[in-house]
Design a protein that fits this description.
Layout: H1 2-6, H2 8-12, H3 16-28, E1 32-35, H4 41-51, E2 57-60, H5 70-82, E3 86-93, H6 97-103, E4 116-119, H7 126-137, E5 143-147, H8 159-171, E6 175-179, H9 185-195, E7 200-203, E8 211-212, E9 218-219, H10 222-227, E10 232-235, H11 237-240, H12 245-263
Parallel strand pairs: 1-2, 1-10, 2-3, 3-4, 4-5, 5-6, 6-7, 7-10
Antiparallel strand pairs: 8-9
Helix pairs in contact: 4-5, 6-7
The protein binds 5-bromo-uridine-5'-monophosphate.
């Protein structure tokens, strides 16, 4: 079933975790990753309870939770796991390999609960080895999403930088895929051409209300993002700030799923 729906993306992928994601997306008929940017544990629990059935992955910023404790967080990850979600910490690592390896540990111990993390390639390719070593240290595995583009206005990830990130990232088995700019379908289409079919492209900067967001964020349409080659729309405020998060999540799920069917 997943092979049919995802076409060449499934056929060319050599990553277990990508295949796991594609299967979850088919099961839930949703290519939505929720950006769960709420800053209390109660707010996070409430959100996941409402939208769990309509999303395929959960993106966190573990360091923005005001009342974070290790115990509550591990309970939260258990709930996410029970809801069948991949857990993606959007940490945007950027340091040298050995420091990044240690930053996967520390108080938040990201290596012990994340399936995916983001990283910049600004410090060179060893950052991916550092992150993979950290997962190995706790006998787990995971995938790295490299920032090839960003959704925010004025960002410094110019096309030449994007090309180098893609060229290096494509070769590395520890790289699950790339972050692309969900607000600009044309840029995304170009990125997909460069990436080919073997790796994922996940896209923030997506909202049914297209246009400029807060503090330089930009938003594009979910259907357009998937048609341009995104494999997962990352949606934050479009869901968690809505008066009915479940209804909104369902709308994004339907838009993303229908676009995948249309694309393949
Ligand atoms: P929003 O509320 O849908 O704007 O939330 C977007 C989320 O995606 C938020 O958690 C950001 O940290 C994240 N993000 C982004 O907006 N743009 C980027 O280029 C990257 C991540 Br990388």
């Amino acid at each position: 079933m997943a092979a049919e729906i995802w076409g060449e993306r499934w056929a060319e992928s050599t990553s277990d975790i990508s295949k796991k994601y594609m299967e979850i997306a088919v099961k839930k008929r949703s290519l939505v990753c929720l950006a769960a940017d709420r800053n209390t544990m109660a707010g996070l629990f409430d959100l996941i309870e409402q939208v769990g059935p309509y999303i395929a992955a959960l993106k966190t910023h573990v360091d923005l939770v005001d009342d974070w404790t290790a115990g509550e967080w591990s309970r939260f990850c258990e709930v996410a796991d029970a809801a069948g979600l991949l857990i993606f910490e959007d940490r945007k690592f950027a340091d040298i390999g050995k420091i990044t390896r240690n930053q996967m540990g520390g108080i938040y111990d990201i290596r012990s609960w994340s399936d995916l993390v983001t990283a910049h390639l600004i410090s060179g390719p060893d950052i991916v080895d550092g992150i993979q070593a950290a997962w190995s240290d706790v006998s787990r595995s995971g995938g790295v999403l490299l920032l090839a583009q960003m959704s925010s206005r004025g960002n410094l990830l110019n096309p030449k930088y994007t090309d180098e990130v893609v060229a290096k990232g494509k070769q590395h088995p520890g790289v699950f895929g790339f972050i692309g700019n969900g607000s600009r379908p044309d840029e995304l289409r170009e990125l997909r051409q460069k990436v080919g079919s073997a790796k994922m492209i996940w896209t923030p900067g997506v909202n049914l209300a297209v246009g400029d967001g807060e503090m330089g964020q930009r938003y594009g349409d979910p259907r357009q993002a998937i048609l341009a080659g995104s494999d997962c729309i990352i949606v934050g405020s479009g869901i968690h700030k809505s008066s009915n998060p479940a209804d909104s999540a369902k709308k994004y799920a339907d838009a993303s799923w229908n676009a995948l069917i249309e694309r393949e």
